[in-house]
Amino acid sequence: MSQDLLKLLPEFNLIEDSDLRQKCIKTWEEGMRQGGWSAANLTRMPFTLLIPDCPASFVEHTRAVTLTCVRIADVFEQIYGDRNPVNRDCLVAGALIHDVGKLLEYTTEDGKTVKSEFGTKLRHPFSGVALAAQQGVPPDVLHMIAAHAKEGDLVQRSREAIILHHADFTSFETLKGG
Ligand SMILES: [Fe+2]
Q: How far is the CA of 109 from the centre of ligand 1 (A)?
């Protein structure tokens, strides 16, 4: 399973801390197990049900958001240096698992991705934190999952969570067509 997942999401290899990388991979694997997703049907899962005929898959969105975060960190490092320091491992880990709760929020019915019964009770920031906490993902990364969407407007986001929030919404809003 890990090898299949690494093929889908090679950006896991950008997490330098092997313990953190393993915890993030296990979070995804547990989400896939609980949600009944396989590497094969995952590639057909749209990243959101809020955009009709969504042109991007869940895996593509996760990769795009993660790499957007990395590029932002690159520019900040180049221009601001240590005046705007970003914890890269935390940033990449949080980006890779920010939407992992969607594996429980969405399910497949007659070949279509739909909201699950569970998903009507808990949106993915909540289920994502629960999944990641079970695997021992540290609080700084849990914070990013918790605060990446609109629920996070109520809390003071960390620097990494701010970058993730904007990378995520940039992806969402542009794919939606403005
Ligand atoms: Fe997202």
A: 22
Q: How far is the CA of 49 from the centre of ligand 1 (A)?
A: 12
Q: For residue 80, how far is its CA from the centre of ligand 1 (angstroms)?
A: 26
Q: What is the CA(165)–ligand 1 centre distance, in A?
A: 8
- In the predicted model, residues of the chain with pLDDT beneath 50 are none
d(CA 135, CA 152): 22
What does the pLDDT look like over 145-166, one tens digit per residue? 999 999 999 999 999 999 999 9
Instruction: Tell which CATH architecture fits domain 2-176.
Output: Orthogonal Bundle (1.10)
**Ligand 1 centroid – CA 83 distance (Å):** 28
Structural contact between residues 72 and 81, judged by C-beta atoms closer than 8 angstroms: no
Enumerate the domain spans of the chain.
2-176
Give me ligand 1 centre to Cα 55, in Å. 14
Sign (positive or negative) of CA dihedral 122, 106, 127, 124: negative
> Are residues 7 and 42 in contact, defined by beta-carbon separation less than 8 angstroms?
no
* Segment 38-50, tens digit of pLDDT: 988 898 899 999 9
